[in-house]
């Protein structure tokens, strides 16, 4: 009887292990922003490699809105079986600093897999814009408070706080125009309906290369190698700096074996020269985490940093 019980228990344990370490069920890679944006683009770059390494189809699913928080909330409530992942952005840390309350814990409700990329933003205007430099933007905003508009991919996004920090440190007031992500901000800046764009190089690079967008600055503290010839915003506003990131996470509670399997797969994907080239073409540097705890600590530090920014810039919490 004891032998039968042991064998039955071993069978059940083996079945659970098999279900959580390999499955014919597709893996859903959730991202929280519109088609064509930085998050969507990066998710689609890494999805094929993850499919190959994991032996399961990886499908990118957009759950847009609330600066990525709808996607984060959905994933936090998903089963921790390895079949639901999320490509997070720096907006996750910004939201944790900006919102009074979220319906998920931004750190403890997730198992952290790896950072994918880190990158600054570009500050740009239409080629038809009267603004030739950041000094022009600041001067106009001082003369006409709240008349100069800037885009973001949603309230509480990193782009939003980049603009708020810019205005605060420059001592001006600007009008925030939020979108749900995707190509909307770019289209309206190109069309002259919004003045200034704070966004990723993914979104702006092609238009800058064709001359349809004029880059006024990059938000890294020093010149950025993937955006040559563009001066740091810090040249106009001393000490101004914004860097963001993308990274993979999953619902809290995965088995250590599944978490390790996912981490190993991501590291392999991010070591592929073709994937690295595609990711760098989005304007980000590939910076994988050595472990799950390392990514968790990184995100925790980012939240702490943005809390300081919100307090320093006197930004009202949502």
Would you write up a description of this structure?
This protein has 318 residues and is of the alpha/beta class. It folds into two domains: 25-119 and 244-312, 3-Layer(aba) Sandwich (D-Maltodextrin-Binding Protein, domain 2), CATH 3.40.190; 120-235, Periplasmic binding protein-like II (D-Maltodextrin-Binding Protein, domain 2), CATH 3.40.190. Helices cover 43% and strands 20% of the residues. The chain has helices at residues 2-21, 38-54, 69-76, 91-98, 134-143, 158-170, 184-190, 201-209, 256-270, 273-281, 292-312, and strands spanning 27-31, 58-62, 84-89, 110-126, 149-152, 175-178, 196-200, 213-218, 243-251, 285-286. Strands 1, 2, 3, 4, 5, 6, 7, 8, 9 and 10 form a ten-stranded mixed sheet that branches. Helix 2 (38-54) crosses helix 9 (256-270) and helix 4 crosses helix 11 (292-312). Mean pLDDT is 90; it is low at 1-22.
Give the distance, in angstroms, between the N- and C-terminal Cα atoms: 61 Å
What is Rg?
Answer: 21 Å
Count of helical regions: 11
Q: Name the CATH homologous superfamily of the largest domain.
A: Bordetella uptake gene, domain 1
Low-pLDDT windows of residues: 1-22
What's the main sheet like?
A: 10 strands, mixed
Class from secondary-structure proportions: alpha/beta
SS elements, strand count: 10
Q: Averaging pLDDT over every residue, what do you get?
A: 90
CATH top level of the largest domain is Alpha Beta
Label the overall shape. globular
What is the succession of H and E elements?
A: HEHEHEHEHEHEHEHEEHHEH
């Amino acid at each position: 009887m004891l032998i039968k019980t042991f064998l039955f228990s071993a069978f059940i344990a083996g079945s659970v292990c098999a279900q959580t370490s390999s499955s014919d069920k597709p893996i859903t890679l959730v991202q929280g922003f519109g088609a064509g944006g930085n998050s969507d683009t990066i998710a689609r770059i890494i999805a094929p490699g993850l499919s190959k390494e994991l032996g399961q189809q990886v499908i990118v699913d957009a759950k847009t809105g609330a600066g990525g928080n709808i996607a984060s909330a959905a994933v936090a409530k998903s089963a921790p079986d390895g079949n639901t992942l999320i490509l997070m952005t720096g907006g996750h840390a910004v939201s944790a600093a900006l919102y009074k309350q979220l319906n998920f814990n931004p750190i403890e409700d997730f198992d952290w897999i790896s950072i994918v990329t880190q990158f600054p933003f570009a500050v740009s205007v239409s080629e038809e814009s009267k603004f030739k430099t950041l000094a022009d933007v600041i001067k106009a905003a001082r003369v006409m408070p709240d008349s100069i508009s800037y885009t973001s991919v949603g309230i509480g996004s990193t782009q939003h706080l980049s603009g708020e920090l810019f205005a605060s440190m420059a001592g001006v007031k600007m009008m925030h125009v939020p979108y749900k992500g995707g190509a909307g901000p770019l289209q309206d800046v190109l069309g002259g309906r919004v003045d200034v764009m704070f966004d990723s190089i993914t979104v702006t690079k092609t238009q800058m290369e064709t001359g349809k967008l004029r880059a006024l600055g990059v938000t890294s503290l020093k010149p950025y190698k993937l955006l040559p010839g563009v001066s740091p915003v810090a040249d106009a506003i001393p000490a101004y700096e914004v860097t963001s990131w993308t990274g993979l996470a999953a619902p809290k509670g995965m088995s250590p074996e599944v978490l390790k399997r996912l981490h190993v797969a991501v590291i392999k994907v991010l070591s592929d020269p073709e994937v690295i080239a595609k990711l760098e073409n989005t304007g980000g540097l590939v910076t994988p985490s050595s472990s799950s705890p390392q990514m968790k600590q990184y995100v925790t530090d980012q939240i702490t940093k943005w809390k300081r920014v919100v307090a320093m810039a006197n930004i009202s919490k949502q």
